[in-house]
Amino acid sequence: MAGRRLFIRPTRASDRARVLDLHRAAFGPHEGPVIADLVADLLDDPTAAPRLSLLAERDGRPLGHILFTRATLSPDPGGIQARLLCPLAVSPELQEQGIGGALIREGLSRLREAGCDLVFVLGHPGYYPRHGFHPCRPVSAPYPIPAQNADAWMVRGLSPDALERVEGTTLGCATALDLPHLWAE
Ligand SMILES: CC(C)(COP(=O)(O)OP(=O)(O)OC[C@H]1O[C@@H](n2cnc3c(N)ncnc32)[C@H](O)[C@@H]1OP(=O)(O)O)[C@@H](O)C(=O)NCCC(=O)NCCS
User: Fold this and answer.
1) How far apart are CA 21 and CA 36, in angstroms?
2) Residue 84: CB within 6 Å of ligand 1?
3) Do residues 135 and 124 touch, judged by C-beta distance below 8 A?
4) Which residues share a beta bridge with 62?
């Protein structure tokens, strides 16, 4: 693929069907439809805003998508902006070529510029730490994470000292993500 540049940009309303197709393909026949529905709900959910929805494409072909949505902290420590990364998908035949990593880096860079302090994710503990995430002890997830998945609940600080300021809080998420079964596995 040398010379064919990966282009990452915010999604538009007209990208919707292609974005949902990407998630269906990346997550497979069992999980894919559930995740695609979740993305559709999050794109429509007013409580998910401000959101950051980025599409990676090459030669106009969509290759990957990442979504960050608004998160709150309770009790509110004041002055901390948080987002939840969910979900991230790369087209199956193009995985392991750095596209997922490029989407994460671009997303974190845009969020930092927008003044975001903390980004949370429930994801693969072998993947996200290579992008600065680490298991999150100070902040509880919206629903209890099963003990065997404890390390999948992760956070990435974007501003100094933000994590110390949120010790003992619980994350709140967009209504579309506020369902216990989404946090159970
Ligand atoms: C997970 C996913 C987004 C990663 O994107 P990608 O573009 O394939 O990943 P990158 O090219 O940036 O990174 C590849 C590296 O991450 C590792 N990696 C990929 N998926 C991983 C996982 N689930 N767990 C641990 N490591 C993983 C690869 O082994 C590779 O390692 P290497 O650099 O040491 O060879 C992509 O594989 C995908 O869409 N998977 C299906 C949907 C999914 O699981 N999404 C994440 C939900 S939390």
Assistant:
1) 7
2) no
3) no
4) 57
Distance CA 179, CA 70 (A): 16
Q: Which atom from ligand 1 is nearest to the alpha carbon of 97?
A: 11
> Of 88, 112, 116, which Cα lies nearest the Cα of 102?
88
Q: Please write the tens of the pLDDT for every residue from 60-71.
A: 999 999 999 999
Whether residue 2 lies inside any domain: the answer is no
Q: What is the CATH number of the domain that holds 35?
A: 3.40.630.30
Categorise residue 156: left if φ over 0, alpha if ψ from -120 to 50, beta otherwise: beta
Q: Which protein residue has the closest C-alpha to ligand 1 atom 14? A: 96
Q: Could you tell me if 62 and 45 are in contact, meaning their C-beta atoms sit under 8 angstroms apart?
A: no
State yes or no: pLDDT of 2 exceeds 70.
no
Query: How many other CB atoms are found less than 10 A from the CB of residue 70?
Result: 20
**Number of separate domains in the chain:** 1
Tokens of 18: 């292609």
pTM for this one? 0.96
